[in-house]
Amino acid sequence: MVFGFGAAERFNGETDTSTAGANKSGEVPRPRGNVGDACVVTELSHRDAMAMGSVVANRRHTPSRLSFVRVGSERRCACLAVVLIEEKRPTMVTFATARRVERDDLLDFLRSRHRAVLSTTRLDGRPQLSPVTSGLDVGGHIVIATYPQRAKAVNARTNPLVSVCVQSDEWNGEFVQVDGHAEVLDMPEALDGLVEYYRVISGEHSDWDEYRAAMRRQGKSLVRITIERWGPISTGGFPPDLDHGS
Q1: Domain edge (last residue) among 85, 105, 128
Q2: Neighbour tally for 91: CB within 10 Å
C-alpha cells in the first residue's frame, strides 16, 4: 500500500473513473506539497478502500472531492486508488481600521449594537470590567440595567467616570470606546428608564404592566451614561502600513 500526504495533483480537473490520476505504468502519482492537503492511497481491496474512504471523508476538514478510481495492470487485476483533494482557499488578510466620526454617526453606531464592556473604578484605583447589554435611549445616553449591589453600580456611585467599549456582534467587527459620566438610578426612579432600556434593545413588550411589576419586584437599577468623548470606530488586524508590503 502506498500512503502519502500532500497537495495532490489536480489531474487537469479530470474525473475519469477508469484511469484518473494514473501514469503510463498504472501508478497513481505520489502527492506533493503540504502535510494535510490531500492523501493518495493505492493497492487496496475494494472493501479496504471503501473503509479508508469513510475514514478520510470523516476527517476534521471535509474533503471537497473524494473519488475512487480503478487502476488495472497485469500484476494487479483490481486496484483502487482513493484521492482526496481539499480546495486551497486564499488566505484572507485583514488590516486594522480606525475612522473618526461625529456624534450623530457615533449614536447611529451605538443604537444598533448592544454588546459592551463597562469599565468602572474600584476603591483601590484598579478597573472593574463588566460585560453588559447596553442600549441608547432617546436622549443619547448609554443605558445599562443592573442591581444596586453589583460592583459596577457601587463603583459608579463612588466614581462616576466610566468607559464603555461597545462591540459588534461579530468578533472581528467594529467597536468603539466611549467615555462618560454615569449616574445610577434605583427604584422607583429607575422604572421608566428600564422600560425604555427594554424598548430600545428588544422592541415592545407583550405586557408592560407585567414587566414593570417584575422590575419593581427585582429591585432593578439603571446606569445612565452621559457621553463626553469617544475614540475612533475601529477594527483589529494587521497595521495598515503593511498593506503594500512595507
Answers
A1: 85
A2: 5
Residue 103 is classified by DSSP as H
Do the beta carbons of residue 190 and residue 212 sit within 8 Å?
A: no
Please indicate, yes or no, whether residues 145 and 27 belong to a single structural domain of this protein: no
Residues 150 and 130: their CA atoms lie apart, in Å, by 10
Q: Compute φ and ψ for 110, nearest 5 degrees.
A: -70, -35
What tens digit of pLDDT does each residue of 86-141 get?
445 556 778 999 999 999 999 999 999 999 999 999 999 999 999 999 999 999 99
| Residues 138 and 224 reside in one and the same domain | yes
- The residue segments making up the domain with residue 71 are 2-85
Yes or no: say if 57 and 85 are a contact pair by the CB < 8 Å rule: no
The more confidently predicted of residues 41 and 183 is: 183
Q: Helices 190-202 and 208-218 meet at what angle, rounded to 10?
A: 120
Tell me whether strands 233-235 and 221-230 are parallel, antiparallel or unpaired: unpaired
Q: By the 8 A CB rule, do 178 and 227 touch?
A: yes
Reduce the DSSP state of residue 238 to 3 states and report it: strand
Tell whether 215 is covered by a domain.
Answer: yes
Return the H-helix or E-strand segment holding 112. Answer: none
Residue written as grid cell 471503501: 50
Quick: pLDDT tens for 141-151.
999 999 999 99
In this structure, the answer to whether residues 80 and 101 fall within a common structural domain is no
